[in-house]
Design brief:
alpha+beta; 7-stranded antiparallel β-sheet; 16 strands; 19% strand; globular
Length: 509
């Protein structure tokens, strides 16, 4: 069953839920166990969960319904929504407070039980599911919004809050979340911060190292680190919050955070443009930076196969005719007439130069949402081909699309589609290779080729989704040995028993 059919049959569901229903119904192949697909990865010297451990977890949480042990209950926590990895945890814990997380981690550390923190499980690199039999700590029930200060723009919440919920609450207070993702209906803000997610608004608001003002995190030993701050200026020694932003749950479990939300723009416009070449895309981006300046809030590139996948699988309609490339440009400002004038001047200039061949512009909320859907639903549409190898990389703009052409030639007819789209505003390409089902033959053609190619042009093997499990042995293409050694020392200092999200981020020795 296509995603569009399942969505229409079940109403508004998160794509994680839809994906899991597809696995259960047999419409998508349940992946092989990670230990079978990646036999070189060996289980660490951790204890195995016993009935006595389960009883202790029930004692800590005081509620049997928050300790899941039945196979049918925990299957969804063992599989990532891409269907690329699958663990075999036998217990999922659902704490509601930081103290409960601390008690769980203290016990697991004493027992040397490995744990896997999990948010919305929308990650693309296998970082949010067990590799073997780790205890899953799901943050789903830690979803309280504690404070929104419309004067300072600071939002304080627990880490299990869904990003779209925070976006709605911020909007009610005249604010905007500095982070926007296609998976916002499922992903958790704690997972976003733990992976330093980038998203669609980074060109305007920067990354989460700047937007997150403070965090509360629990270390492997069960120590609660209160690093919360309600101020943008807090220059008091080492900024320890940065240890947890982007560390993917390997140094501690984020339980609360405070984040700065800018004032919502009164004037928002969206342009959807058609172009005939990547060279035109690159020149149009430069024209957008020069002509739109401070009101430019998003700049996305989409190739023809990506848009075709999105429109087909979700029954969407493109507002313009077919072109080899498309750009989605959003502006956000405070004066509609001023912003429209700048946008019109930009479009006139690029169309006179034959950079932009066709386009549409709107400031109507419904039309803007429909245009954004074309871009946001691409990643989910591509997995509907059966299986999709996804690569999230940073590349110099001169080489931005070349890798798509190189990979397309390399895999040939083995792939259903080879597509490229992404945040050209911050040099982040999403390279996708879809096929009917996982094939080791394609995997070997892609890795390490994609990462070697990226390294050769001095790019980054992970732009915004982290390293997780799938990229650990490729981290060396972006980090020098001295940096890797220091990262290992930090891990040893903060998690001496190695129980926090093992087999992730750092290469296995």
């Amino acid at each position: 069953m296509h995603l569009r059919s399942l969505l229409s049959a079940t109403g508004k569901l998160s794509f994680r839920t839809v994906a899991l229903r597809q696995f259960a119904s047999g419409h998508r192949e349940i992946p092989a166990l990670t230990k079978e697909r990646y036999p070189s990865v060996k289980r660490g010297q951790f204890s195995e969960v016993s009935d006595r451990d389960v009883a202790q977890f029930e004692s800590i949480l005081g509620d049997n319904s928050r300790v899941l042990t039945q196979p049918e209950e925990i299957q969804g926590y063992n599989i990532d929504y891409l269907g690329s990895v699958r663990g075999f945890s036998r217990v999922v814990l659902k704490p509601k407070s930081t103290d409960e997380v601390a008690d769980i981690l203290k016990y697991c550390n004493e027992r040397k039980l490995a744990v896997c923190p999990q948010g919305g499980n929308t990650g693309l690199v296998g970082g949010s599911v067990p590799v073997f039999d780790e205890v899953v700590i799901s943050m789903q029930l830690m979803n309280k919004i504690e404070q929104i200060d419309k004067y300072s723009g600071i939002l304080v919440c627990q880490s299990g809050c869904v990003l779209e919920t925070l976006e709605q609450k911020a909007a009610e207070n005249g604010l905007v979340m500095p982070l926007d993702l296609g998976a916002k209906g499922s992903c958790h803000i704690g997972g976003n911060v733990s992976t330093n997610a980038g998203g669609l608004r980074l060109v305007r608001y920067g990354n989460l190292h700047g937007s997150v003002l403070g965090v509360e995190a629990v270390t492997a030993e069960g120590r609660i680190m209160d690093l919360m701050s309600n101020f943008k200026k807090d220059n008091t020694g080492y900024h320890l919050k940065h240890l947890f932003i982007g560390s993917e749950g390997t140094l501690g479990v984020i339980t609360r955070l405070s984040i700065f939300c800018p004032t919502a723009s009164k004037s928002v416009n969206v342009a959807f443009l058609g172009l005939d070449s990547y060279e035109s895309v690159k020149k149009t981006f430069l024209a957008a930076k020069q002509g739109l300046g401070e009101i430019l809030s998003s700049c996305e590139m989409i190739d023809a196969p990506s848009l075709e996948s999105s429109t087909y699988h979700f029954n969407l309609q493109s507002p313009i005719e077919k072109y080899p490339f498309y750009m989605l440009i959003e502006t956000s400002g405070s004066n509609m007439s001023h912003d429209e004038e700048k946008l019109n001047n930009f479009l006139e200039n690029t169309m006179e130069k034959r950079l932009v061949l066709d386009g549409t512009v709107t400031n109507e909320p419904t039309k803007m949402r429909n245009i954004w859907k074309l871009r946001e639903l691409i990643p989910d549409s591509l997995i509907n081909d059966g299986y999709c190898f996804k690569y999230d990389i940073s590349l110099p703009l001169d080489n931005f699309y070349d890798i798509v052409l190189a990979v397309r030639e390399r895999v040939g007819p083995l792939a259903t589609k080879v597509t490229g789209y992404g945040h050209i505003g911050d040099s982040n390409l999403h390279l996708n290779v879809s096929c009917p089902k996982y094939r080791a033959e394609i995997h070997k053609l892609l890795e390490p080729y994609v990462y070697e190619y990226t390294s050769n042009v001095r790019g980054s093997v992970s732009a915004e989704h982290g390293i997780g499990f799938l990229k650990t042995k490729y981290l060396k293409y972006s980090k020098r040995p001295e940096s890797l050694a220091l990262m290992s020392q930090m891990k040893q200092l903060m998690d001496p028993n190695g129980i926090l999200n093992p087999y992730k981020v750092l290469p296995q020795v």
